[in-house]
Structure formats: C-alpha cells, structure tokens
Amino acid sequence: MSNPRLSIIPAGAVTDRSLEPRDLQTLCLLGRHIDRAGWCTRSQVRMAAELGCGRATLQRSLDRLYEAGWVEKKRRDHWRPEDSTPSSSYAYRVKLDRDDFDQKSLARDGDDDLDESHAENDEVPEIGEGVPAGGQGCPPVGTGAHACTGTGAHTYAGTNNDPLERPLKTIERDAGARARDRKERFKGEFRKRWPTAVVDDRQRTDYAADALSAEEEKAALDGVEPFLEELKRQGRKTVIAGWRYLEEKRWTLLRGAGEGSAERSVSRAAFAEGSTEHRALDALYAVARARLFVNRGDVIYPGGVTPQVLAFADVADRASWRWIVDRQQIAAWQAFLSSHVFGARSPLLERRGDAMGFFAPAPWPPRKDGTWSDEASQAGGDE
Fold first, then answer.
1. Nearest CA to 95 among 27, 184, 180?
2. Are 55 and 45 a contacting pair, CB within 8 Å?
3. N or C of the chain: less Cβ packing under 10 Å?
4. Which of 66-80, 113-127, 244-258 is the least confident region?
C-alpha cells in the first residue's frame, strides 16, 4: 500500500476518565490526517462526516481533548490583520508526550511485565517436571503468593467493579451540550421548512430561535404548515421572514392555537394613548427595547393586561432605572419579557465597559400580584 493509514495516539488518553468514546475516535482521526509537521488542517465538516456525527459534536470532542492536554491547537488565520474579525478555524496536533504525564504510571506499566499473576509471564515447566495437578499452567491450590487463587477463572481480583463516577463538571457540560444539540436541530429543521430561509437574515433568525423554549420550538415547527396555508387562504402573495415568524410567535395567532390556554385566548386589545394601560405598556416595551404598535391613535397589544403588566404604569423615569448585570436577574427579566413583549425588538443586553447588562426599573420583574421586590433572593417575582 503506497499510503498506509496509521494513527498513533498517547497511551494515557486511553485510560483518561474525563474523555468519552467519541473523543478517542476524534483523537485517532486527527492522527490520520496530519501533515509532515504533525498538524491536522482537515476541515471539521469533513471530519464530522467521517465519524458520522454533527460538527457541534466533533467540536466538543476537540475542546475536551484540548482541555485534557492531549492535543494542541493554533489558529489558521495568522495572515489576517489584527483589527479584522477573528476566525474560528484551528489546526490541531496530537501531543504524544505530555509534560505533566504521571511518571509513576510508566513505572507501573513497566512492572506489569514482571507481574507473577499474569499467566503469560509464568514459567511453564516441561511435561512431566512438576506439572500442577490442576493442569499445565494452573496456579497451586490453596493460599500462597498468588493472591487471585481460588477466586474463579474469570474473576477480576483486586477491584470492587464499581461503575466509574463521572465528575460533576462533565455532567453539567453534557447537559449543556444536549441543549445546544437540540437547538441546532431545531434551527436546521426550521430552515428546511421555511420558504424564505435562504434569503433571511440568518443571525437574526438564530437570535429568535435561541429565545424559544423546547415547547415553543415544537409549537413553532408544528405551526409552519398551518401558517403558510392560512396565508394562501387569505390570498397573500408574500411570506414573512422566518425570524419575524419566530420573534412574534405567529403560530400562536392561528385559529384554535390557543384552545385551553387563558393567555392565548385573549384577543388583541386597543388602548387609548395616555391611558394607564398605555403608560404601562410603554414602560414595559422600553425595558425590552421594543416599539409599541399604534393604529389610529390606539395602542394595540395582543397579550393580556395582567397586574404584572400594569405594575409598569407608575415606574420612575428611565433616568433613575438600574443597570442590571447579575446573571440571575438578567435571566429572570429575559423570561418575563419573552412572555409579555410581542413583535420585533433589539438585543436586550449592551456592553458598558467590561460588563454586559441593561436598564430596568427594578432588579427583578414584578410579582404576579403586581408588586415589586428588591430582595436579591427573589428570582423573578413568583414566576
């Protein structure tokens, strides 16, 4: 064979409990596609196809291998100017030697060759010269130097045979990976079904998709076909952008979509400008950095005006709002705004110095009874 496919990996990676089977496959694949300098510059798309997995799965394996120290990486865009947009393309090289590798394990591996408990290391006497009663090569009966005597032919002596405990960091990382995989599958499936996906703003579509929960993702996909059929029924010649469908949650406006739900059964309401509802909605949409829909002097709101919404009617002037940077408070506000603000809106977070945050009337959203809380322990006001 003119070009043999060989792959050599460090032995320590085989027993590294922080790695997963897919990581070892990836490690071997890197070694199969190295250049003369030892670097693998093969695209992640092609490597993922070879392993029969998604690119996101391959990327996580590469990250775990890098964090564990079994590979090194370097950027492939050294020629780009420093002020240009950075590239996420990397080249990887398998590290056959690691500075922090446990030298004791090497000595232990060397001692294994002299371990008397290994049958291949035992001296087998010639026939007729002291052959044990149990047959050639059998250990002597009874206690003695052989610790595994009497434990059974296939018993692995010296271990409790307990399953390996996965570190908490690995469990949390895998949970996040599964969520990212689900989100990527949803985005891919939505682009297949939506007719304008090719010309839509992909970044904005991704932002809108990231804001959806797992239940909303399923409802959005199930509502694509009925929504398009409704457009045809009404004689519409154009289809809205996919990101607008997701941001405004248009599937909830279909007939019958709100059956059994009090919130979705509320019809669009119109409020006069200057009314209490208008003041509340104006402040609420200001927090979300969105614009109210006004038609002929009336404010149109498709949701229910609950005490939580009316709580915004008497908030202080925006100049006295607080700059929110706490991650729990940000998450609580994002969930609240996602449920009460409809239509297109700008990204909530903005950068000020080294921190990302936004302005809000209070640290936490209002409670269901319309009252506010400043306590740090309140996670979103009885949401």
1. 27
2. yes
3. N
4. 113-127
State the CB neighbour count (10 A cutoff) for residue 320.
9
Question: Which residues have C-beta within 8 Å of that of residue 353, sequence separation ≥ 6?
Answer: none
At 110, which helix (H) or strand (E)?
helix 103-112
Rounded Cα distance, 85 and 42, in Å: 22
| pLDDT tens digits, one per residue of 304-354 | 888 989 999 988 888 889 999 998 899 889 889 988 888 767 788 888 888
Residue 119 has pLDDT above 50, yes or no: no
Specify whether the CB–CB gap between 309 and 340 falls below 8 A: yes
For 89-112, the pLDDT digits (tens) are: 788 888 876 555 555 455 555 555
**Which of 78-82, 90-94, 275-279 shows the lowest mean pLDDT across its residues?**
78-82
Which of residues 119 and 358 earns the better pLDDT score?
Answer: 358
Residue with structure tokens 């018993």? 155
What is the CATH architecture assignment of 11-78+89-94?
Orthogonal Bundle (1.10)
* 124 SS3 class: coil
> For position 261, what pLDDT does the model report?
41
SS3 content of the chain, % helix, strand, coil (to 5): 40, 10, 50
Q: How far from 359 is each of 179, 336, 351, CA to CA, in Å?
A: 29, 14, 11
93: three-class secondary structure by DSSP: strand
How big is the CA angle at 300 (ends 260 and 370), to the nearest 5 degrees? Answer: 65
Question: By three-state DSSP, how is residue 350 classified?
Answer: strand
Q: What is d(CA 51, CA 64) in angstroms, rounded to the nearest whole number?
A: 17
For residue 378, the surrounding DSSP H or E stretch is none
Instruction: Report the alpha-carbon angle 367-369-372, nearest 5.
Output: 40
